[in-house]
Write a structure and sequence with these properties.
It is a multi-pass membrane protein. The chain is mainly alpha-helical. The chain has 19 helices and no strands. The C terminus is likely disordered.
């Protein structure tokens, strides 16, 4: 099948994660009121989902290498849909957190399958371009998610948001079964012992270049997740914006992501993906430096929002290039490599997000300083990355 068709279907699949993260953000005040909990406690439901989304990939990735992408992906969609329905019926914070964890397990099996399918089909700069195209399509979900959540709130209650997520998961299961897997050539698989599935992780963990790119992904995603977790607090509580204005500003982040993603595709013909990652990570860090300065000087909303849009929007160029670099060295273990990348990204970022919700005093300054700290770490790793992954790959194969 064509790359465009593959990207559309995989982009719609991986969009499940952003939808589950962002669609209920405008409902945080409503959930807090109905469950009689604080705004920050509602953030725990997001952190629980994200952390599980990471840890469960450690199981889903090796299983997809052994049993194939289809059963793992379809199983994930079913578990996700069931979890979403149960979240909609939760009456307490503990129930909601429990079923969000179940949702995270299903979402993890979906999330780990997509980059593995891409690496099964292509590699190198071509993989970076395909990841970019998938990302461009996927950006529709987080851009529309808060608006969809606001519509659900206007039509009924926050429970409807999770019923919508369940319906989307069922739709994707049917669409993939009809349009993707019958036309996709599966890679040859070998039935490896369970012990080998575990030791395969050591092969990835010992690869210094791959782990450098994993570290960049973790820190950049942590920067974004800190914003997502506290975005409702920043815009709706700190600045007192309405649901509609919050949704517009949130969508602006995604619009900038999409713009950088579009620019990134032709740049890949002239520059290596490593060079582009380095430039975009530095751009994100500079935007966050400006954000901290704007907060310290008590700057206006437009200045704060502009810095956030550039910092979060930088993910549009960072993610596809960095994922291609991280996945390049393990074509026969793409599920395992994707699992380690996703697990590290979501688990560590989820832990940072949870700590910021539980122990942070939750002021605009502390949130922005946390984002800047994560971005600074990513810059340090990006500066030390090899200029040419192809050369590093040749050394890897020779070794």
């Amino acid at each position: 099948m064509s790359h465009l068709q593959l990207a559309i279907l995989l982009g719609m699949t991986v969009a499940l994660g952003p939808l589950a993260l962002d669609a209920y953000l405008p409902a945080f005040p409503s959930i807090a009121d109905e469950l009689n909990i604080s705004h920050s406690q509602v953030g725990l439901t997001l952190s629980a989902y994200v952390t599980t989304l990471g840890l469960a990939q450690l199981v889903g990735g090796p299983l997809s290498d052994r049993y194939g992408r289809k059963p793992i992906l379809f199983g994930g969609l079913i578990v996700f849909a069931c979890g979403a329905v149960m979240v909609s019926m939760a009456d307490t914070l503990s129930e909601m957190v429990f079923w969000r964890i179940a949702q995270g397990i299903g979402g993890a099996f979906c999330a780990v399958s997509v980059p593995a399918i891409v690496r099964d089909q292509v590699g190198g700069q071509e993989a970076a371009r395909l990841f970019g195209l998938i990302g461009l399509i996927m950006f529709v979900a987080p851009a529309a998610a808060p608006s969809l959540g606001a519509v659900m709130l206007a039509l009924g209650e926050w429970h409807w948001i999770f019923l919508m997520l369940a319906g989307y998961a069922v739709f994707m299961l049917l669409a993939l079964n009809v349009a993707l897997f019958p036309r996709l050539q599966p890679p040859p698989r070998t039935i490896t012992p369970l012990k080998t599935l575990v030791t395969n992780y050591l092969l990835v963990l010992r690869h210094k270049t791959t782990m450098r790119f994993v570290g960049i992904q973790v820190l950049c995603f942590s920067t974004m997740l800190l914003f997502i977790t506290h975005s409702s607090f920043i815009y709706q509580e700190w600045y007192g914006l309405s649901n509609s204005l919050f949704s517009i500003l949130f969508a602006a982040n995604i619009a900038f992501m999409a713009t950088l993603n579009l620019i990134n595709r032709p740049l890949l013909r002239r520059f290596s993906s490593v060079v582009l990652v380095r430039a975009q990570v530095i751009m994100q860090c500079l935007a966050l430096v400006a954000l901290v300065i704007a907060v310290l000087l008590e700057g206006p909303l437009w200045a704060v929002a502009a810095c956030i849009i550039v910092a979060i929007g930088s993910q549009g160029g960072i993610v596809p290039n960095n994922m291609a670099n991280a996945m390049e060295f393990f074509p026969k273990l793409s599920g395992t490599a994707a699992a380690l990348l996703g697990a590290s990204q979501f688990t560590i970022a989820g832990a940072i997000s949870t700590l910021s919700s539980v122990f942070g005093d939750q002021t605009l300054l502390t949130i922005t300083l946390g984002m800047l700290a994560c971005s600074t770490g990513a810059v340090i790793l990006a500066i030390g990355a090899p200029r040419a992954v192809a050369r590093a790959l040749a050394n890897h194969e020779a070794g």
